[in-house]
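Troubleshooting log. The previous run stalled partway through. Resubmitting the same four chains, unchanged.
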Amino acid sequence: MAARLKDVAALAGVSVRTVSNVVSNAAPVAPATRARVMAAVEELGYRPNLAARNLRQGRTGLIGVVVPEIHSPYFGALAELLIDAARERGWTVLLERTGGRPDLERRLLDGSEGHQVDGMIVSPWSTSPAELASLAGGLPLVVLGELAPDGAIDHVALDNVAAARDAARHLVAGGRRRVAAIGLQSELGHGTAELRAEGFRQGLRESGLSPVAEVEVADLHRGEGARALRELLRLPGRPDAVFCFSDELALGALRVAAEEGVRVPEDLALMGFDDIEDGRFAAPSLTTIAPYREQIAERAVQCLTERVLGRFEALPGRRIVVPHRVLPRESTGGPVPPGAPDGPGTPDGPGRG
Amino acid sequence: MAARLKDVAALAGVSVRTVSNVVSNAAPVAPATRARVMAAVEELGYRPNLAARNLRQGRTGLIGVVVPEIHSPYFGALAELLIDAARERGWTVLLERTGGRPDLERRLLDGSEGHQVDGMIVSPWSTSPAELASLAGGLPLVVLGELAPDGAIDHVALDNVAAARDAARHLVAGGRRRVAAIGLQSELGHGTAELRAEGFRQGLRESGLSPVAEVEVADLHRGEGARALRELLRLPGRPDAVFCFSDELALGALRVAAEEGVRVPEDLALMGFDDIEDGRFAAPSLTTIAPYREQIAERAVQCLTERVLGRFEALPGRRIVVPHRVLPRESTGGPVPPGAPDGPGTPDGPGRG
DNA sequence: CGTCCATGTTGCAACGTTGCAAGCAACGTG
DNA sequence: CACGTTGCTTGCAACGTTGCAACATGGACG
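Second attempt completed without errors. Output:
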């Protein structure tokens, strides 16, 4: 049977309370006593019973991380960073995925599914931030990837408008004039795709251009990118550059370009968003917008921690904007030849740093 | 404040115990009483306090899933399936990653890190199954991807020897004679890479062939695949086929082939292992060995459930072998042209089903 | 010498739940 | 009518931990 405080106390010849003081650093303990207790802890292999601790303290030490999918390169990498950032602060992460299903997204948030958590970090797909707030009902919440104005919720995201504008500028700077976009999602009322579309148009407008086409997608995966580029290639005036709202879309498009004999970047410049690892190893390697993922994870956990610990002060919702940068690679004829610092030769290049 | 059994009981005019009976179906309750209690539960938005329940019952309802990384396409997809399978059986999954670090792998297993779980599903990297058993110290355990003989641990895996043999056969059947392998890992004493190497050699031997080269790797990622193929291309007698022990290795190799002007599959047949989504959208699409992942996840959770619930019967360790199949695609000149059922046109083709 | 304070140590109660065994009413049977 | 049975409900105690307040001890200080 597992050792309890009582057992350790008996062995060390002190009270239960003193053992508790030692193991949880709750009060000063004389060095000699501490040593004796530690020895007993070692001998019995004592581990605190977290259920009891949680019951007593009213906290679980668990934070929920809710993402649409774990499987995708972007969210997988983000989840990993969140888990690390949380561990550093003593939290354990309960990772949940919604698969984009609105009902599941809601159930996870209102707590009727699964375990109790002290707070949540959510990357919403089909639920608006306002709705999130009411569902969570007072549970500390940090929202990723969306910026919305209301409630005592913190938001962490990059500046989608500026990032998309930078993408458009990059394509135009490379001499492209017939620029299209893939990745709009009018069906979802909410933000990310809208914001990127907006920034994309702004970036073109600065040079007196406007999009030759904007293709809607059902999701941000390769299949949709492939379908969308096929569609674009059938247009009378083919684009000479395409900005995809995710790297996965771009990789699907890249595959279709190869099939159709369209040379990238000579005939078509292709650009993605997210900087997933696959993009660095694609042939040609994929130019992309790289968010500083570590910062997103770090700031998100930091915000949530502050909220959980200072539960009763009603902090106003903060909006945290993390920086991004354009990573020029081969797919836009960028300055980085194969084998150079950002090429496949260095799998841990800037894309992850 | 959150409602407790006591509050519900007061509102419904019954005892605390009766409310408990209703919410946990512990004893028969008169329909009228049940209805009254349910109404009170609704009104107060009562949710059972799991910390208290766990403390009382000695179980947490959590199972740990430990994988080397979440970030990678293979483990990401597997983790997702495990979470789903676990949810169906009422478990919540605590997903942890080791990053391949032996020390962290050990800490996670012996429970000194993080939360208490009722059992664990582990995909080990640097720790042998025997060591796992002693670390877990009686905690119900299911090991994925390795088969080792000892202890009361269940193993779930495909037949690595047979799978690698099938891969070799596939390459030989395509007329290849100078076949190499990428992915050996002599440094790690343990199984998977060894088993695949063994099966690979067997498959060649059946046709009177032997490997023209076997390249060791430090990990199973794209970067190592790229490095390894560069090495192979420098050999005096270039191979005409390469079997990579993971799809990621193969994708790295594919990239290098494109850089070096080596045509795939004409000059070089390339084959992977795992059936990750990226492989379906690579150009050319990647022939691979596909495990039935759903079965792995399903069986693993099933085994663990049996062990956790029947904790005191000492079941002997079971070895569960899940089937696999060869998915011929373009990279070995396979029968599947672009756009056909298994091509990029159907992102949810056999690779996931 | 008495008082105060800092430092260590302690017992008690409580967190919200469920196992246990007993209680109670109503009913069927001998 | 006594008795056992069935169906439903209840009070008590316990799970292992920590907050609280009180209690010893010993040294510094007026």
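Takeaways: Residues 4-6, 16-17, 20-21, 24, 26, 48-57 of chain B lie near DNA strand C (CB under 10 Å from a C1'). Chain B touches chain A through 57 residues (CB under 8 Å).
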